[in-house]
Design goal:
alpha+beta, 3 domains, four-stranded antiparallel sheet, 7 helices, disordered N terminus
Length: 366
């Protein structure tokens, strides 16, 4: 079954190469200046059922005391109990062009020794940007998606109970200023730099807008100049540009994960002429101790345990297979399948072929 799945996966890569389907520019690039901004804050989660921080966590006790005094409640700091409270860090991403009042998702992570945040509510927490200014405020009940139960004789835990989320739990209070360049010069950055892809992108843009609109700056950056016909419509121009399709190029690469037996190969992987022989050596050791004891009513003697070891050596016959120069991944998969190898065997064979210098591809081992 594993070999069939492997063949189907590889065949899918080969077929996709022949169809030459393109990707939109918006899926391959990012417009310079249009980016997320990371926010962070420190807060308290309350309403926990004795699963909060312990009294050994001084930072939680101090924070609770400071908050209550700020609300006009005087209390003895030494008498503060925090079993139902947890100190947390709150993080969020502020999306580009977010306006005041926009709701964003927030992530809450325990800072102290709380056992679980399940059932808790985050109190109002300011979220700061890199400039230490407040850009959003978060508050609300947590969604944890985990269970943690503990008793005197054991405990049960499912998923991660000390991390939760609040969908739309943050409200943007300050906007990040950004305006499109007034000179009509836009720069797009490829997420994966490649000279071939950036060249194709420039050709597609120039062909679609019938002029020298775009030029490649390097293997990752494309400069685009707003055409005169779109001088009053920059948004429409960017929309049309981002929906153009380009056939991206990539390096020949094989990614393998030996722990799971997963193999992913690109369509451009090629091999030089090489001979492969593969055989497995299986050694089985069985231990079956036997007990020897005196006969009934016998005088003297004692019971003795005698180990009995059974060794079995099974070595498969190695079969040579010759791969011609320039074969594709489909040919490689078919050839390896004929000698009955498993995905883990394929990983070992690929590592050996790479070491022999017969593989024209990058081998990535996870």
């Amino acid at each position: 079954m594993k070999k069939i799945l492997l063949m189907l996966l590889i065949a899918g890569f080969c077929c996709s190469g022949s169809l030459a389907l393109g990707a939109r520019i918006k899926d391959l690039t990012e417009l310079q200046g249009v980016r997320n901004n990371q926010l962070i804050g420190y807060g308290l989660v309350v309403g926990l059922n004795d699963t909060g921080d312990s009294t050994n966590n001084g930072i939680t006790m101090q924070t609770v005391a400071n908050m209550m005094e700020h609300l006009g409640v005087n209390l003895d700091r030494e008498a503060v109990k925090v079993e139902n409270v947890a100190a947390v860090m709150v993080t969020a991403d502020l999306p580009p062009f977010a306006k005041a009042g926009t709701e964003i998702d927030v992530l809450i992570s325990s800072l102290g020794d709380a056992e679980s945040l399940s059932g808790g509510t985050l109190l109002r927490t300011p979220l700061l940007g890199p400039d230490d200014k407040v850009y959003a405020v978060a508050q609300g009940p947590l969604i944890v998606g985990a269970v943690s139960l503990k008793g005197a004789g054991g405990s049960v835990e499912k998923n991660h109970p000390t991390v939760g989320r609040i969908p739309d739990g943050g409200i943007v209070e300050r906007e990040v200023g950004f305006a499109l360049p007034k000179d009509g010069r836009y720069v797009y950055h490829l997420r994966e730099g490649d000279f071939t892809t950036i060249s194709r992108m420039a050709e597609v843009v120039n062909s679609s807008f019938q002029g020298r609109v775009a030029k490649a700056l390097d293997n990752k950056s494309l400069e685009v100049q707003l055409p005169q016909s779109y001088a009053s419509k920059p948004i429409q121009f960017l929309s049309s540009l981002e929906n153009l399709e380009v056939q991206p190029d990539s390096k020949a690469k094989i990614v393998v994960n030996e722990r799971t037996g997963t193999i992913v190969m690109g369509k451009d992987v090629r091999l030089s002429r090489v001979a492969v022989a593969h055989g497995n050596l299986k050694l089985t050791v069985k231990e079956s101790p036997k007990v020897s004891q005196p006969e009934p009513f016998s005088q003297g003697g004692q019971t003795v345990t005698v180990p009995d070891s059974e060794l079995e050596l099974d070595e498969e016959d190695a079969r040579f297979m010759v791969m011609e120069e320039g074969v594709s991944v489909g040919d490689v998969a078919s050839a390896l399948n004929t000698i009955g190898v498993t995905p883990r065997d394929v990983i070992t064979i690929f590592q050996a072929i790479k070491a022999a210098g017969a593989m024209q591809a990058e081998l990535v081992v996870l």
